Amino acid sequence: MTELAKxxxxxxxxxxxKPDSVDALMKWGRDLCATARDHPGFIGSDLSVRxxxxxxELVIGLSFDTSASLASWERSQRRVExxxxxxxxxEGPVIGMTVADFDRGIFGGRPGQVAVAPPRWQTAVAVxxxxxxxxxxxxxxxxxxxxxxxxxxxxxxSTALLVPFVVWAGVPTVHRVWERVARICSAE
Length: 188
Prior knowledge:
InterPro entries: ABM_predict (IPR038762), Dimeric_a/b-barrel (IPR011008). This is ABM domain-containing protein. The chain is α+β, with helices and mostly antiparallel strands and about 190 residues long. The chain folds into two domains: about 10-95, 2-Layer Sandwich (Alpha-Beta Plaits); about 120-185, no CATH class. About 50% of the residues lie in helices and about 20% in strands. It has helices at about 20-35, 65-75, 75-85, 120-140, 150-185; strands at about 10-15, 40-50, 55-65, 90-95. It has a four-stranded antiparallel sheet. α4 (about 120-140) packs across α5 (about 150-185). It is elongated, with a radius of gyration of 23 Å.
């Protein structure tokens, strides 16, 4: 029988801090990472805080060399005891996260849920909303300064400027605005 390949795995969880417990929860998270560091197969950890004040959430990621090492950590008495000590510092459920949750917004669903691709029309609208203002600015400010360029070179210049802007700034900005609008609409 062939042996299955062994790959590193990461588990991530998110906990909402009680308003007066953000610093204590951060210390608790650092202590959890230190405890995991001593477990066989541990590779690394990541700890971050999202939000501020009443909406502060602690995100903890722990990586192990194999899924068996992770499973062993999850069954360990040290982990169970450490998790029990967090209940006084947090509110709401423990939310398991996937890799997709770290870069997810309205287009991917809520953390802990399976990501679903948005409808094509929604993607097209997001790209158009990011592209249109950038194209207007480019065509009114930059392209008039390059009047004698051949069409192919002019297109090369414009796409070399537009595509990176749209991918790294425009579409993420549209997603953030879209998320805010969706949150406001769902709160009403």
